[in-house]
Design a protein that fits this description.
With about 240 residues, the protein is an alpha/beta fold. About 25% of the residues lie in helices and about 35% in strands. The protein is globular.
Length: about 240
C-alpha cells in the first residue's frame, strides 16, 4: 500500500486502540504468559498501549517493551504503572535492545504488521540473538483463511451499535499473502477511514523462519487456554525455544 509504513499503524490507530481492539482474551493470555515467564527477564515486541505488559508488571514480572509508535507509548504512559515501564522506541524488526531475555513475546497478530517475508525472517533472526539459551519466543497469530474471500475481497462488520458501525473492506493477494484494508468507523456525526496492510504467514512458514534462526518449536495451542491446535483452529499461540548450549 503506497505511503503505508512501519509507523502508520500507531499514527492511525492509537486514538481508539483501547476501545476498538480488545480481543477479550487479556486475562487468560496474561495468566499463560506469566506462567511461561516465571522469574525470568521478558521483552514484549510492539508493546503498544500496554494491554499485556502492564498487567504482567503488576504481577512482578520483569518486563520491558519495544514500540515503534510514539503515539501508542504516549497512551501507555497515561495508565497506572505506565510511566515506570521501560520502553524503547524502535522497529521490532531490529530488536534494538540488549539481551539476553528468557521470554520474548509478540501477540495479537502483530507479527503480520511486518509486510514482507524478508522482514519477518529478520525478526526471527534478531529475536534468536536476544534470547538466552533455553529462552522462548511466543507469538499469537491468526491462521489464514483464504476461503473467506470471494473474488479476492471481503467486507466484514467488526462492531455495530445503535449509533455506530465499524467495518473492514479487504483486498486479498494470495500470491504475496497480503491483506490491504480500509477500516471505516462511523459514530454519530463523525466518520473515519483508516488503512491497514498486513502480510500473513502460515504456521508451517513461521516454523521454517524459526528453524532458519536456530529456534525449534516447543508448543503450539489453538488458543490461550491450551486448546489443542487442529485443522479447524482459527488462531495459534506458538512457542519456539533457543536450544541450550
Amino acid at each position: 500500500m503506497d505511503g503505508y509504513g512501519p509507523e502508520s499503524f500507531g499514527q492511525f490507530y492509537a486514538q481508539e486502540y483501547d476501545t476498538l481492539h480488545d480481543p477479550g482474551t487479556t486475562d487468560v493470555s496474561v495468566d499463560r504468559i506469566a506462567r511461561l515467564a516465571g522469574s525470568g527477564r521478558v521483552l514484549e515486541l510492539a508493546v503498544g498501549t500496554g494491554r499485556i505488559a502492564l498487567p504482567l508488571a503488576e504481577r512482578g514480572i520483569r518486563i520491558e517493551g519495544i514500540e515503534i509508535s510514539p503515539e501508542m507509548v504516549a497512551k501507555l504512559r497515561t495508565k497506572p504503572g505506565g510511566a515506570e515501564l521501560p520502553v524503547t522506541i524502535g522497529d521490532m524488526e531490529d530488536v534494538g535492545v540488549s539481551g539476553p531475555f528468557d521470554l520474548i513475546l509478540l501477540v495479537f497478530n502483530t507479527l503480520f504488521n511486518l509486510t514482507t517475508q524478508r522482514a519477518q525472517v529478520r525478526l526471527f533472526q534478531n529475536v534468536a540473538r536476544c534470547l538466552a539459551p533455553g529462552g522462548a519466543f511466543l507469538v499469537e497469530a491468526f491462521v489464514p483463511d483464504p476461503a473467506r474471500f470471494r473474488g479476492h475481497q471481503d467486507v466484514r462488520v467488526r462492531n455495530l451499535t445503535l449509533d455506530s458501525v465499524c467495518f473492514d473492506g479487504i483486498l486479498h493477494d494470495p500470491v504475496a499473502q497480503t491483506l490491504t484494508m480500509q477500516r471505516l468507523w462511523a459514530t454519530g456525526d463523525r466518520t473515519r477511514i483508516v488503512p491497514l496492510y498486513l502480510r500473513y504467514a502460515w504456521p508451517s512458514e513461521l516454523d521454517l523462519m524459526a528453524e532458519l534462526a536456530g529456534l525449534r518449536l516447543r508448543d503450539r495451542w489453538g488458543g490461550w487456554a491450551d486448546e489443542p491446535f487442529t485443522r479447524d483452529s482459527r488462531m495459534h499461540v506458538s512457542v519456539w525455544e533457543r536450544p541450550e548450549m
